[in-house]
């Protein structure tokens, strides 16, 4: 058994294996993930080779992801599969373990994957689940929606609108925990077109694009994948809601399934207009892995320092032991000059007396939960609690569904 990067001569075997495992009609699609991705490198296709045959494979996608207010390097793992004749002997597990080493070699801070099989397989390998929330609501008449006459909403035209949409995405997601940083080249990649990254409609006023909506209408359900707008354009979200409901009314759509949390401003407006019961959903099984946890935390230090500088309260020097599962020796030191350090140990570090599961830890790091929710009765001083509340605020966390990956 060999575990390594795929060779050019083996890529056809990789594509055929993906077709067997996922979609017999997906040959062109899987080739486009290689040929149409300008960020692709041959080493990103990992394989297990037995007697000269590729029997197991996966793909690594290098991206930048926001964790809180900071950007970290992410290794997205997809297309994990093994030939049916070679399953249940540990090839995929061995490949996953080897890939962690590869991610560390190329400088990734974080591993991300979305699984269609039971999560237990990946949990056994050290991965932790992170819930990705969405909701559905029964469609209602567009007549109740707000007047959208101030906005011109038209079909998205990639030839004329893409530059403006790409800039708008950057503005709208600069502080969005969970979002992928999309380079301009990313928008042009064939895999992005395959996965439906491009918006469906754009909203203009005075000739300028200030918002967009990514949705798809099926037989009875409309799926809303993403929305973006500038924050200082009042009424644009109402206009997009109105447009969506009118489109649903024309197509006699019964339900709208939204692939991001109901707390998003667009979602709140949609729910208010529909005025129907909302069903919360977990839209995907996302899993995370810290390639090197101390290094990952150091990537967050600059963002944390900014949060401390912007806080209303000033903090004296302090040292706390971070509640990290399976790694109790990570210490956060706040210095007199306002800088932060991640250090392996400190005998003076305050033990917060909090035990976090891996799932809780990731939710705290991204902002799905804030420090107050983790330990409202922690046996530490009010100053330390206030300090940690600044570092770990509750945020809206969105990994936009078209970004896989």
Helix/strand layout:
Blueprint: E1 2-5, H1 11-21, H2 27-35, E2 45-50, E3 53-67, E4 70-82, H3 91-105, E5 110-114, H4 120-123, E6 128-138, E7 152-155, H5 158-172, H6 184-188, H7 190-195, E8 201-205, E9 208-217, E10 221-229, H8 236-250, E11 255-258, H9 265-274, E12 278-290, H10 293-299, H11 301-310, E13 318-321, E14 331-334, E15 340-343, E16 350-351, H12 358-366, H13 371-374, H14 382-391
Parallel strand pairs: 4-5, 10-11, 13-16
Antiparallel strand pairs: 1-2, 2-3, 3-4, 5-12, 6-11, 6-12, 7-8, 8-9, 9-10, 13-14, 14-15
Helix pairs in contact: 8-9
Summary, kept brief:
The protein is α+β, with helices and mostly antiparallel strands and 405 residues long. Helix content is 32%, strand content 28%. It has helices at residues 11-21, 27-35, 91-105, 120-123, 158-172, 184-188, 190-195, 236-250, 265-274, 293-299, 301-310, 358-366, 371-374, 382-391; strands at residues 2-5, 45-50, 53-67, 70-82, 110-114, 128-138, 152-155, 201-205, 208-217, 221-229, 255-258, 278-290, 318-321, 331-334, 340-343, 350-351.
């Amino acid at each position: 058994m060999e575990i390594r990067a795929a060779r050019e001569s083996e890529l056809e075997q990789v594509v055929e294996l993906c077709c067997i495992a996922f979609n017999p009609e997906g040959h062109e699609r899987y080739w486009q993930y290689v040929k149409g991705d300008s960020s692709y490198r041959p080493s990103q296709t990992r394989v297990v080779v037995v007697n000269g045959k590729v029997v197991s494979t996966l793909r690594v996608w290098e991206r930048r992801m926001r964790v809180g207010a900071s950007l970290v390097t992410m290794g997205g793992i997809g297309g994990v599969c093994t030939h049916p004749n070679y399953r249940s002997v540990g090839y995929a597990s061995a490949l996953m373990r080897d890939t962690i080493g590869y991610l560390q070699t190329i400088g990734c801070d974080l591993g991300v994957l979305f699984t269609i099989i039971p999560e237990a397989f990946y949990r056994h390998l050290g991965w932790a689940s992170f819930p990705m929330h969405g909701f559905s609501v029964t469609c209602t008449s567009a007549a109740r929606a707000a007047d959208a006459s101030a906005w011109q909403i038209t079909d998205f035209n990639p030839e004329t609108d893409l530059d403006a949409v790409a800039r708008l995405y950057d503005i709208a997601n600069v502080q969005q925990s969970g979002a992928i940083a999309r380079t301009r080249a990313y928008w042009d990649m064939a895999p992005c077109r395959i996965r439906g990254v491009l918006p469906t409609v754009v909203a203009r006023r005075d000739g300028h694009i200030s918002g967009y909506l990514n949705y798809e209408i099926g037989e009875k359900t409309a799926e809303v994948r993403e929305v973006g707008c500038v924050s200082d354009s009042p009424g644009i979200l109402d206009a997009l809601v109105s447009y969506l409901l009118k489109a649903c009314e024309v197509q006699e759509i019964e339900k709208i399934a939204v692939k991001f949390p109901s707390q998003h401003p667009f979602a709140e407006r949609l729910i208010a207009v529909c005025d129907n019961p909302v069903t919360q959903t977990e839209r995907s099984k996302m899993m995370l892995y810290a390639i090197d946890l101390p290094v990952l935390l150091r990537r967050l230090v600059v963002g944390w320092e900014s949060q401390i500088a912007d806080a209303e309260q000033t903090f004296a020097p302090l040292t706390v032991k971070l509640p990290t599962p399976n790694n109790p020796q990570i210490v956060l030191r706040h210095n007199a000059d306002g800088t932060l350090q991640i250090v392996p140990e400190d005998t003076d570090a305050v033990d917060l007396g909090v035990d976090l599961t891996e799932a809780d830890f990731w939710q705290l790091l991204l902002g799905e939960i804030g420090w107050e929710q983790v330990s409202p009765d922690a046996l530490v001083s009010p100053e330390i609690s206030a300090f940690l509340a600044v570092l770990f605020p509750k945020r809206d966390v969105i990994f936009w569904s078209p970004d896989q990956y």
